[in-house]
């Protein structure tokens, strides 16, 4: 990790303050900072007084260090968790957070933290962005127009240049070790999925995944397995036509671009261990088709990563877990994995950029 740790510090957005985000980040800091100079350096964008209060409440064996800019994170990291104050947000909006009870009153801080993290990454002050989970329903109540980070990040980075040859995302991928799944449609009602599947969109997603597996993850000849939509991948048209009309033509188009894509595979049998050994990433047709297998097998290890962005972005795979917020029982493995993955991706991008 020595070289990876030498890249720019990672910016961590605060996520829902009534959820488990702060707790898992503090636990990750306690764990990862043990690695000393080989630990990836990161900082949280939040209200330092709020975070310091939580650190005192849980009697964490470290403190919070307020930094004025990302450059201050490296020196501060060995002393305590570096926290960069939220820009343009009244800290009073975060003064009355009750664990487990999210409120629209904190929405500006939550979305402002993401925006600030992305800006720092785009201007080259941060090596990438790690987002802590947001409560999507509460942000929506407050007028936030995006169903999740993925779409918001696409908008925030729409004008920025991508690495050479990388088509523009955003594309969501969940990854745990060699197990990688991509939902071709993301935050969409199931009833709307069939009509929204388009061959050219599947080709764009497949191209981004293949390119990113090489560029960000060092897989030189990525193999993609594409799922069908219907039971038994349509059973020759008996159970649906999307495989023949949309998915198979997209696979042909990917193959004509020398991308090693196969399918459409029946989704029920493509995720067991022997099947997974045949490919580097599965492209599923909808959110739960992609996320159920990986969260079942690797809930505490998986990372949510956005491909096809001008910046690196990862996140723990879990949500705000309001039921256990404030109880001290949340596991930080996925957050630590997200930080380590972002550091590795930032290092890989820095190497490519020369
Ligand atoms: N990247 C993001 O911002 C994400 C946000 N969400 C949002 O989170 C909210 C809650 O979503 P849910 O579907 O309930 O999923 P969830 O992941 O918050 O919780 C599902 C179950 O897993 C448990 N759990 C989650 N994280 C855990 C951890 N670190 N340690 C131990 N147990 C843990 C919870 O207690 C609950 O039983 C929703 O608003 C959802 O949209 C969900 C996923 C990702
Ligand atoms: N289930 C994954 C999820 O909802 C995360 O979405 P995003 O906030 O990363 O776009």
Element layout with pairings:
Layout (H helix, E strand, L loop, with lengths): L1 H4 L4 E4 L7 H12 L9 E5 L1 H10 L5 E4 L6 H5 L2 E6 L21 H16 L5 E4 L4 H6 L7 H8 L14 E6 L2 E5 L9 H4 L2 H17 L7 E5 L14 H15 L3 E6 L7 H4 L4 E4 L2 H12 L4 E5 L5 E4 L16 H21 L1
Parallel strand pairs: 1-2, 1-5, 2-4, 3-4, 5-12, 7-10, 8-9, 8-10
Antiparallel strand pairs: 6-7, 6-11, 11-12
This protein binds 1,4-dihydronicotinamide adenine dinucleotide and the ligand NCC(=O)COP(=O)(O)O.
Q: What would you say this structure looks like, in words?
A:
The chain has helices spanning 2-5, 21-32, 48-57, 73-77, 107-122, 136-141, 149-156, 193-196, 199-215, 242-256, 273-276, 287-298, 333-353; strands spanning 10-13, 42-46, 63-66, 80-85, 128-131, 171-176, 179-183, 223-227, 260-265, 281-284, 303-307, 313-316. With 354 residues, the chain is of the alpha/beta class. It has two domains: 1-161 and 311-354, Isopropylmalate Dehydrogenase; 164-309, Isopropylmalate Dehydrogenase (3-Layer(aba) Sandwich), CATH 3.40.718.10. It has a twelve-stranded mixed sheet, sandwiched between helices. A hairpin with a 2-residue loop joins strand 6 (171-176) and strand 7. Helix 9 (199-215) crosses helix 10 (242-256). The longest helix has 21 residues, at 333-353. The mean pLDDT is 96. Bound molecules: 1,4-dihydronicotinamide adenine dinucleotide (NAI) and ligand LD2JLWAY. The site of 1,4-dihydronicotinamide adenine dinucleotide has 18 residues, from helix 6.
């Amino acid at each position: 990790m020595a070289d990876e740790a030498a890249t720019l510090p990672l910016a961590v957005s605060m996520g829902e303050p009534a959820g488990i985000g702060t707790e898992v980040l503090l636990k990750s800091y306690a764990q990862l900072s043990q690695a000393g100079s080989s630990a990836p350096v990161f900082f949280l964008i939040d209200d330092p007084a709020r975070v310091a209060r939580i650190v005192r409440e849980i009697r964490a064996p470290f403190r919070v260090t307020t930094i004025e800019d990302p450059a201050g994170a490296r020196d501060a990291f060995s002393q305590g968790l570096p926290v960069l104050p939220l820009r343009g947000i009244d800290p009073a909006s975060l003064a009355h957070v009750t664990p487990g009870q999210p409120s629209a009153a904190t929405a500006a801080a939550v979305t402002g933290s993401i925006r600030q993290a992305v800006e720092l990454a785009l201007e080259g002050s941060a090596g990438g962005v790690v987002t802590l989970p947001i409560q999507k329903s509460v942000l929506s109540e407050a007028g936030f127009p995006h169903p999740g980070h993925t779409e918001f990040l696409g908008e925030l980075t729409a004008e920025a240049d991508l690495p050479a040859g990388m088509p523009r995302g955003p594309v969501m991928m969940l990854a745990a070790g060699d197990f990688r799944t991509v939902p071709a449609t993301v935050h969409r009602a199931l009833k709307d999925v069939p009509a929204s599947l388009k061959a050219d969109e599947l080709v764009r997603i497949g191209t981004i995944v293949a390119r990113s597996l090489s560029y960000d993850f060092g897989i030189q000849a990525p193999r993609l397995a594409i799922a069908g939509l219907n039971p038994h991948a349509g059973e020759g048209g008996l159970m649906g036509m999307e495989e023949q009309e949309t998915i198979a033509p997209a696979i042909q188009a990917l193959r004509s671009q020398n991308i090693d894509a196969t399918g459409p595979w029946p989704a029920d049998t493509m995720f067991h261990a022997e099947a997974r050994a045949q490919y580097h990433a599965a492209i599923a047709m909808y959110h739960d088709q992609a996320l159920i297998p990986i969260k079942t097998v690797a809930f505490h290890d998986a990372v949510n990563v956005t491909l096809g962005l001008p910046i690196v972005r990862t996140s723990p795979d879990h949500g705000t877990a309001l039921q256990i917020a404030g109880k001290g029982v949340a596991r930080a493995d996925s957050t630590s994995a997200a930080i380590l993955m972002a550091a590795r991706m930032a290092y890989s991008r820095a190497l490519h950029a020369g």
